[in-house]
Amino acid sequence: MKNVIEVRDVVTRFGNNIVHDHISFDICEGEIFGLLGGSGSGKSTILKEIVMLLRPNSGQIRVLGKDLGSLSLEEAHLLRTRWGMLFQSGALFSPLTVAENIGVALREYTDLEEDLIEDLIRLKIDLVGLPRFAASLYPSELSGGMKKRAALARALAMDPSLLFLDEPTSGLDPVGAQEFDELIVKLRDLLGLTIVMITHDLDSIFTIVDRMIVLADKKIVAKGRLDEVLAASHPFVDAFFRGVRARQRIRSAS
Asked: If phi over 0 gives left and psi between -120 and 50 gives alpha, with beta otherwise, what is residue 11?
């Protein structure tokens, strides 16, 4: 399958603290790819490097065929318009309504007529399963699940090829989390997205993630499909995938 993200021999340091010690992996077009690891393992850092919020100390990252280390400012700007980002908290602009939040990028980066922008905003609201009346609500008036969906609609505003999700089901009840997982798969299939997600949610990992990496001890200690990761031998993998909650999840799936 075609690689849309390639991470090669990346080293990341903050002062004397090494976060990534020569890590490499690929993400294929159309898959849902998981970034797993404990607190401080560097999963958020590598995501920030992929979306050009941070630079690694060495190594190479290629996204959609572009070497991030050699882009001009204009090239970097154009590349950023090809992905969307859902932050863990949603990060909606509190003074703006849901519709205004979704429309920010469309008004900032396109020359579309206002009527067309309004049509696109309604389309994105429908796409993520929000009721139409939510368009006029402010973030403070939304439930946790509605905030996630509104932020997802904003992430999809520019019709991206890539979608990055930071703990997309955190803070949701089990029913809401399952519905959000189902929405992620639906959007992947409908829009042809490649999705990269940081997650600790065992249900998401067991049901919707196609491949993953597990970060620990500054390295990738397991990678691949779920069965390949389960076969890896490392203390963090053992604790994460063979603990009580994971065993219960495996039994319920079998």
From this structure: beta
How many beta carbons lie within 10 A of that of residue 239, not counting itself?
12
| DSSP string covering 225-245 | SHHHHHT---HHHHHHHSSHH
Q: Which of 122, 120, 119 is nearest to 134 (CA)?
A: 122
Average pLDDT over residues 156-161: 93
Say which amino acid occupies 245.
R
Q: What distance in Å separates the CA atoms of residue 127 and residue 149, rounded to the nearest whole number?
A: 9
pLDDT of amino acid 199: 92
Task: Enumerate the H helices of 90-212 as residue ranges.
Answer: 98-109, 114-127, 144-155, 174-191, 202-207
- Mapped onto helix, strand or coil, the DSSP state of residue 209 is coil
Specify the pLDDT at position 166.
92
Looking at residue 136, the DSSP 8-state letter turns out to be G
Check residue 100 and report its DSSP letter.
H
State the virtual CA torsion across 247, 224, 196, 161 in degrees, nearest 10: -140
Tokens for 224, please give them.
């691949």
Place of tokens 């249900």: 203
Q: Under a CB-based contact definition with an 8 Å cutoff, are residues 156 and 84 in contact? A: yes
pLDDT tens for 5-55 read: 999 999 999 999 999 999 999 999 999 999 999 988 999 999 999 999 999
